[in-house]
Amino acid sequence: MMHEDEARPQMLPALSRRNFLVGASAAAALLAIGNAGASPALATSAGTVLPLVAPLPAGQPVRSQFAPNEQVLAAYLMIVAPLANSVRDVAPNYGWMEDGWWRTPNQPYNTRIMEHVATLSWFYANDRPWNPYYRDPALLGRLDAALGHYLSLQHADGSYPEYSPTEHHLSPTGFGTVALAAVLRDLRAAGELHDRRLQIRDAIRKSSAWLVDTSRPHWNRPVQFANQVVAGLSGVVEAAHILGEPAVSASVPNRLQIILKDGQAPAGFFHEPLAPDAGYNFDVMLPDLGALYKRLPDPSIIQLAERFAAWWGYVVVMEPGRNEGFILSGTSARNIVATFVTTPVDDLDRSALARTLLPHVPALRAFYASAEEKRQARNAWSASSAPVAPRQKQDSSPRLHMHVPQAPIGVPAAQRDAQVAALRYRAESTFTELRKGTLDQQYVFVRRPGYYTAGLYGVRQNSLQRMGTNAFWHPVAGMLALTVNSTGPDDWTTVADTVGTASSRGPVTATHHAGSTASGTVIPADALTGYTGTFTTRYVTADGAVTTDVTHRPDGIRRAMTTPGASRERIPLIIGTDDQVVFANGTPAPYGQETITVTRGITVTRGGMRFVIDWGVDREAKYAPMDRLYLGNRTHRILTISFANSLAVDLKVVPAV
Question: Which of 404, 457, 535, 630 yields a CA-CA distance of 20 to 30 A from 587?
């Protein structure tokens, strides 16, 4: 039986005013490319080889014409002409999207850039009242050129390069398979580019085979960069669906079992490469699991999501009375993400397709905008009279417009709020949870009536992770101290200046002891989970220069540090614009002003609660602002206490009266 791609192509549709958008003059089109703020393209031949795609007509797009789930496409509509016109139509590198779109390096061998063929094909193939590029011949010509360049970069084994021409890279192969499958779908629907469709068919067959080939390095155990591996599996399943060839994805259930066993840590996070990463785990990996589940409802996908939801429920710390909060950023190994805010606005909803999993993994519902919030945001978008802003070049991922229109709208607010209330640090006043990494790492989460805190102990995967104590949260006052894994001084650490050791920025060895000192009975790591009494964690830097004892009491924690000489204890406070900060000697610490004094403590008053930090004896202390803003009215202020040899700091929250 002849496959549809082996049938002869249909005739081109009759030319019409709607289809003929090039206009009377290519030069006139070039002058208008920068419409509505979209970046102009280089347009190497100025349209003398391949006709230019015309800019949007004046007054477009009209917001009210968009279906609610397709509003996200409006900002992409704004860049269709600049994107298409950036396709080179002269040698060398004929067909390359040369104008710096979406990924770096901006080089002709970087196939991540070329994933935007899925953007061009969507607008060519889909008839909408707001889409003047439907069946536009100039757009088709430039799409064809781009596909020719893209497909020419595929290696014989089916993989694609990103950072060098000879590289065989997982990321562009996985994400690219999804993009090319979408192009094949669109070109089939349009009945266009028959020969190119055959090439795409063959290309995604080859890339799919490479992606599931367990002899390839990306399947080495433990599996690293899990988001890329799962994106590849999503691409394979999508390719099989578009091709109508189930054999292409027949091995995917087995590969998911490998991810379940060797791509996810015992703690519940997905490997990036072997440690957690908030950005890649939530915004990339999880929606790809959702995409997979839409095509292949395999129970292992739900298991992966359930394990992750349990982990995420410790790492995302919601502020009291709010469905937003902070992320324990110090655990992340690839991105710097300090806050968690749900995203009802489609233009920001990178994790949209993960909502596919919400009926099956109730715990995930806490982390998504409610269906009511989504509808409200979409209604507001439609009613707005503001011009639609175009996607910016480096913020134009085609994944967003591919995911949002097919994503479920979410669960009702009542279901979401019930899951927020069920987050363990909100629902329980006392627990200890030790979760182990794939590396020799301990992620320890401690809830007591007076606080919630967390620490990371063991090896350090890379320079982004921050070791030791990394947060102090109160159920009424909210987040009061938080490590962020940036390059700045915003991590909770002890710096031994005589040897240059910072306790947060290197591996540490930890032991846990019953009672208020490290001389108590050792609690084995496997026995710490479920421990409800007072206990002390001692962690020591690799060079032995800094020893820190963290005592977990019912009402607060004590950090006792020992060092070889002159040192500094640095606490990254989270301060609101209305907080009152005063040193123990009465010296105020104004919100935006650096203050240095000699004293024994400091207090932060927030509403009816007071955060008390007491180090017992007079020491020089500095309170310094940072230029960051979190959740609208919070920022970092760095408290630095100078000492020599030893220091003990007590931290707790008491009523302000």
Answer: 630
Both tokens assigned to 627:
């230029």
The identity of residue 591, as a single letter, is: Y
The single residue listed with the structure tokens 């070039």 is 30
Tokens 């519940």 found at? 268
Structure tokens at 91: 């040698």
Q: Which residues pair with 561 in a beta bridge?
A: 548, 647
List of the chain residues with pLDDT < 50: 1-41
Dihedral over alpha carbons 190, 193, 194, 199 (to 10 degrees)? -120
Secondary structure E strands in 411-555: 431-436, 441-448, 451-458, 468-474, 478-482, 493-496, 501-502, 508-514, 535-541, 547-552
Tell me the domains of the chain and their CATH numbers.
26-57+70-211 (no CATH), 428-655 (2.70.98)
Per-residue model confidence (pLDDT) at position 244: 98
CB-CB neighbours of 20 under 10 Å: 14
pLDDT score for 43? 54
Q: What is the pLDDT of residue 42?
A: 52
What one-letter code names the amino acid at 539?
Answer: Y
Q: What angle do CA 338, 340, 341 make, to 5 degrees?
A: 135
Picking from 322, 316, 372, 321, the residue whose alpha carbon sits closest to that of residue 344 is 372
Nearest CA to 546 out of 508, 511, 489, 572 is that of: 508
* C-beta separation of 537 from 511 below 8 A: yes
Alpha-carbon span 91 to 340, nearest angstrom: 46
Q: Is 515 exposed, middle or buried (0-12, 13-18, 19+ CB in 10 A)?
A: middle
Q: What is the pLDDT of residue 179?
A: 98
Vertex 156 angle, CA 151 and 161, to 5°: 60
What is the structure's pLDDT at 46?
Answer: 84
CB 552 within 8 A of CB 621: no
Query: Cα-flanking dihedrals φ and ψ of residue 275, to 5°?
Result: -115, 175
Q: Which residues contact 204 (CB under 8 A, 6 or more apart)?
A: 177, 180, 181, 184, 235, 239, 242, 243
Rounded CA gap, 234 and 284, in Å? 12
Residue 88, beta-bridge partner list: none
80-118 residue pLDDT tens: 999 999 999 999 999 999 999 999 999 999 999 999 999
Between β-strands 493-496 and 501-502, what pairing exists: parallel, antiparallel or unpaired? Answer: antiparallel
Query: Look-up: residue for tokens 């994503």?
Result: 407
> The dihedral of CA 39, 45, 49, 54: what is its sign?
positive
